[in-house]
Specification:
Rossmann fold, nine-stranded mixed β-sheet, about 20% strand, about 260 residues, 10 helices, single chain, about 40% helix, alpha/beta
């Protein structure tokens, strides 16, 4: 807790049951959190604390076992890259229940998990209470400077970048928090070609309407690969255009993208 507190700034945070809580965040995101938890429950995506500790591995009988097997491959691929690297501090944005931040802590000295979902953060704090490399923050770091500048070597988005509206704003916030030479890694997030974007947006609206949560479509964004081009993205993994549906079932259809903090 002491080492994590040394990277955040100001007096807007208070420590509550294993989580650093930004005071003004609750009112801004409580409605989204309530609907998000309800639809996750309806989708059978709520996990118990013992199950969270095992993620991304799930039982073969789980309704989303195939999806989680694909996510496990993405994460294993990312972790192979981390082996041998010296990462002092990492931040996982949109950390949810914290399973990926916990995996990162095997390769990084200190990991900060950030989310605007207090329900999931409480599960993370309970699931990984014995891991002193992990620190949890309930905060909006995109709009507020919660942490000191240049405090992190690595920032990750694991299945979370699609919940942020403005690519430029998000990456600018990341660059503020990264040390020189640090980088952002985005995995398990869909990115679209320009001619795919509108169709994907319609499909998302239709899905949430059918599920009874129309308003959630306004919190899910369909970014294009072209939007990343100004940031000189490095594609560590990208599905081939000729891959069959069968092949997609065995590996991720989503890219793994690295964006290095620009030099001044």
């Amino acid at each position: 807790m002491i080492e994590a507190a040394s990277v955040h700034t100001g007096d807007t945070l208070e420590y509550q049951e294993g989580i650093w809580v930004e005071k003004q965040t609750r009112s801004a995101f409580s409605a989204f959190e309530d609907d998000y938890i309800k639809i996750r429950d309806k989708e059978h995506r709520i996990f118990s604390v013992p199950e969270i500790r095992q993620l991304p591995r799930v039982k073969s009988t789980h309704p989303h076992a195939e999806e989680w097997a694909i996510r496990a491959r993405s994460i294993d691929r990312f972790c192979r890259m981390l082996k041998g690297k010296k990462v002092a501090t990492a931040m996982d944005i949109g950390c949810g229940t914290g399973f990926f931040a916990n995996i990162l802590s095997q390769y990084c000295k200190q990991v900060v998990g950030v989310d605007v979902n207090l329900t999931e953060l409480r599960l993370a704090a309970e699931a990984f209470a014995g891991n002193d490399r992990l620190h949890w923050y309930y905060a909006d770091i995109i709009n507020n400077k919660v942490f000191r500048a240049a405090s992190f070597d690595l920032i990750t988005f694991c299945c979370s970048f699609q919940y942020f509206a403005d690519v430029q704003q998000v990456l600018d916030a990341c660059f503020y928090h990264l040390r020189p030479g640090g980088s952002v890694h985005i995995i398990d997030t869909p990115f679209y070609e320009n001619d795919e974007q509108e169709r994907a947006q319609k499909a998302t609206r239709h899905y949430y309407q059918n599920m009874g949560f129309d308003g959630l479509a306004a919190h899910y964004f369909h970014h294009t690969l072209d939007q990343l081009k100004p940031f000189q993205p490095i594609m560590h993994y990208k599905k081939g255009k000729l891959l069959s549906f069968f092949a997609h079932r065995h590996d991720s259809p989503f890219p793994w993208i690295e964006i290095i903090k620009p030099q001044l």
